[in-house]
């Protein structure tokens, strides 16, 4: 059994960026990372552009100008201004080549065919120059840039419709247990509704991982070996729930051994989630999570999350952490560090009741995990505690 810090270190060490790439339509590329530099095909802006509503001027020594026309956003005509001429202009409109400054409308007196400005202007005042943001043929966004909504908007403004990005991992969720049935079926005595697969699927969807397939396997050794062999050979990440303990019908550990999955660790000194397995076969990461739902989800956020971040070339691999003032008393039993479900309000954290690893109702209300180290036995109100912020 290893410590939490040792387990996290091992997961980080073995997490590698996926190098497979794909072409994505720009509107579906959010959250991906660029697999190559994006070169701008145009200047942005593609013409000298008015920064505000006002008047474009061909400057001269007088404060009065002859008004000769108007240019709106989207206009393609080019009025020719002589010295002392002006045109009405609007934000985003192309500035005529013969204009060399724009005066905002609030500082102009309009007398019909003539206008008067209240002070002299510098050349190019209130004019966005050609290629101010980016010039044609230069790098608009570098390789490994994460495509945020702003990045998507920027690339779209350059006329870019597709981008090459790193592929997200293919993921398999495998549930084990003869006691599990699907919601909607009659709940016979001794059966329970299977929730881990939908829970993990939702956690992955929340993080924008959509290439996920769910498999169910009975408590049968040969069937377990066959199913795990298939998913390990066809996915980048495999999440198994249940069957990793040492009961007579827990076949996952034996099956992984037969399939020659390299064990990187098994069992972590923590609560919940002690019977956690992490291993690899070739490029595929395999996590065998505890069957208890709250334990499985805790392990997902503490360990699986890191692997997902590593695969997607992200530098921040762990969930954000902070310190908070405890709004609750808590007595820890046993010598294992413990992850407690809590509600964090920005300053204080309320440790919730119902911390059992089989209970999800408490987790359903939580937005944070409170890490209680091994050496801490009690938490009192106003104690400073370590908080992990959930997505």
UniProtKB/TrEMBL annotation:
Swiss-Prot/TrEMBL keywords: Magnesium, Metal-binding, Molybdenum, Molybdenum cofactor biosynthesis, Transferase
Keyword Transit peptide (UniProt): no
GO BP: any one term: Mo-molybdopterin cofactor biosynthetic process
Domain of life: Bacteria
Metabolic or biological pathway: Cofactor biosynthesis; molybdopterin biosynthesis
Reactions that this protein is recorded to catalyse: adenylyl-molybdopterin + molybdate = Mo-molybdopterin + AMP + H(+)
Known EC number: 2.10.1.1
Annotated InterPro entries: MoaB/Mog-like_dom_sf (IPR036425), MoaB/Mog_dom (IPR001453), MoeA-like (IPR038987), MoeA_C_domain_IV (IPR005111), MoeA_C_domain_IV_sf (IPR036688), MoeA_linker/N (IPR005110), MoeA_linker/N_sf (IPR036135)
Domain MoaB/Mog: 172-310
Reported cofactor(s): Mg(2+)
Pfam families given in the database record: MoCF_biosynth, MoeA_C, MoeA_N
Molecular-function GO term, any one: molybdopterin molybdotransferase activity
Enzyme class: transferase
Alphabetical list of Gene3D superfamilies matching this protein: MoaB/Mog-like domain, MoeA, C-terminal, domain IV, Molybdopterin biosynthesis moea protein, domain 2, Molybdopterin biosynthesis moea protein, domain 3
Cellular component GO terms, alphabetical: cytosol
Family (UniProt): Belongs to the MoeA family.
PANTHER family with a match to the protein in the record: GEPHYRIN (PTHR10192:SF5), MOLYBDOPTERIN BIOSYNTHESIS PROTEIN (PTHR10192)
General function of this protein: Catalyzes the insertion of molybdate into adenylated molybdopterin with the concomitant release of AMP.
NCBIfam families hit by this protein: Glp_gephyrin (NF045515), molyb_syn (TIGR00177)
UniProt protein name: Molybdopterin molybdenumtransferase
Biological source species: Allotamlana fucoidanivorans
High-level lineage: Bacteria, Pseudomonadati, Bacteroidota, Flavobacteriia, Flavobacteriales
């Amino acid at each position: 059994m290893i410590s939490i810090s040792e387990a996290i270190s091992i997961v980080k060490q073995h997490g590698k960026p996926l190098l497979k790439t794909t072409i994505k339509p720009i509107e579906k590329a959010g959250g991906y990372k660029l697999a190559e530099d994006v070169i701008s095909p145009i200047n942005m802006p593609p013409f000298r552009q008015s920064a505000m509503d006002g008047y474009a001027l061909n400057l001269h020594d007088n404060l009065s100008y002859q008004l000769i026309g108007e240019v709106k956003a989207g206009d393609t005509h080019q009025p020719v201004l002589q010295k002392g001429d002006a045109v009405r202009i609007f934000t985003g409109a192309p500035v005529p080549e013969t204009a060399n400054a724009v005066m905002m409308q609030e500082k102009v007196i309009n007398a019909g065919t003539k206008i008067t400005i209240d002070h002299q202007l510098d050349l190019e005042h209130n004019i966005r120059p050609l290629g101010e943001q980016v010039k044609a043929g230069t790098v608009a966004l570098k390789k490994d840039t994460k495509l945020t909504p702003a990045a998507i908007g920027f690339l779209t403004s350059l006329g870019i419709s597709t981008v090459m990005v790193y592929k997200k991992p293919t993921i398999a969720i495998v549930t084990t247990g003869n006691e599990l049935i699907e919601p909607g079926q009659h709940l016979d005595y001794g059966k329970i509704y299977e929730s881990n697969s939908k829970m993990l699927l939702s956690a992955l969807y929340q993080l924008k991982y959509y290439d996920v397939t769910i498999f169910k396997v009975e408590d049968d050794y040969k069937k377990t070996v066959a199913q795990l062999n298939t998913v390990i050979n066809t996915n980048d990440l495999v999440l198994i729930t249940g069957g990793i303990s040492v009961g007579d019908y827990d076949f996952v550990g034996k099956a992984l051994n037969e399939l020659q999955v390299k064990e990187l660790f098994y069992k972590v000194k923590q609560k919940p989630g002690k019977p956690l397995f992490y291993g690899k076969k070739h490029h595929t990461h395999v996590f065998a999570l505890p069957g208890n739902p709250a334990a499985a989800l805790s392990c997902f956020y503490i360990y699986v999350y890191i692997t997902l971040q590593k695969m997607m070339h992200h530098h921040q691999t762990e969930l954000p952490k902070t310190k908070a003032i405890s709004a609750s008393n808590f007595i820890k039993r046993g010598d294992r560090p413990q992850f407690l479900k809590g509600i964090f309000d920005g300053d204080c954290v309320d440790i919730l009741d119902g911390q059992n690893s089989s209970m999800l109702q408490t987790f359903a209300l939580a937005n944070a995990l409170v890490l209680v180290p091994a050496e801490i036995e009690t938490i009192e109100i106003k104690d400073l505690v370590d908080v992990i912020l959930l997505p």
